[in-house]
Amino acid sequence: MSQSERAAYFRALHSRRPLVLPNAWDAASARVIELCGALAIASTSAGVSWSHGRGDGQKLTREEMIQAIRYMVQTVSVPVTADIEGGYGGGSTHDVAETVRALIAIGAVGINLEDSPGRNGEVLLAPEAHAERIRAAREAASAARGDLVINARTDVYLFQVGAPETRFEAAVQRANRYRAAGADCSFVPGVIDADTIAALVRAIDGPLNIMAMPGAPSAPQLGQLGVARVSVGSAITQRALATTRRAARELLEQGTYGTPEDSLPFGEANGMFAVS
């Protein structure tokens, strides 16, 4: 299957209501997620950053992110979409286009592109500036003879921008502007209230991605509200790190190693990566 065919398949999956996308941070986590039955995989910029010894928030280089996605694409057979934060480099349209060209070349099928951080100390980019980056991503994919599912993220709710009563309209206006610029899907993280989510579904043109968080409706409930796509950000990575901390503390403080039920058998784990 070509990159364009894989991207078209990934786009079609958004009609499932919802498409559930567990977020991976490296090839091993991507493979585990695939074997659990995921139809597609999204990366988490936080998890990838942590695996490189960095904090989240535009701390990765483009090359580091591309290499992480390349390993995922090479390891799994399902579509992989990449969290590219603000596009890397300086976040210009040129930087976004360069990132997209590199992703098309390695076989990735989509991107998350977020409208934070802004310029001159602003939390968010001006909506027209982010719309231009989305157009640049779309044009770069076409010029590379590929296809790309663009998930345009607005951080109005996540970073609590503006007075609470203004956030809904601001998020809707941004999402619809980004959609008109060429985005396939709108991503509004930071919302967990069912009524607000349902209202966003009605007001936003096109599919909506919600990030599942504590207190949010379950994935099936989000689908019933009309949400097209559910992801979890860094949540799975955080649980994996918590497990690592528990195991290390047990070993260092008690000198014990847990029970066989606490871990995958070596043969099973190794067999996940056997070359056919």
Describe the secondary structure blueprint for this structure.
Blueprint lengths: L2 H10 L6 E3 L1 E2 L2 H9 L5 E3 L1 H7 L10 H14 L4 E4 L9 H14 L3 E5 L12 H17 L5 E5 L10 H17 L4 E3 L6 H10 L4 E4 L7 H6 L4 E3 L3 H20 L11 H6 L5
Parallel strand pairs: 1-9, 2-3, 3-4, 4-5, 5-6, 6-7, 7-8, 8-9
Helix pairs in contact: 2-4, 4-5, 5-6, 6-7
Please give a structural write-up.
The protein is α/β, with parallel strands linked by helices. It has a single domain (3-234), classed as TIM Barrel. It is built from 11 helices and 9 strands. The chain has a 9-stranded parallel beta sheet with strand order 1-9-8-7-6-5-4-3-2. Helix 7 links the parallel strand 6 and strand 7 (185-187). Helix 2 (27-35) packs parallel to helix 4, helix 4 packs parallel to helix 5 (93-106) and helix 5 (93-106) packs parallel to helix 6 (127-143). The mean pLDDT is 96.
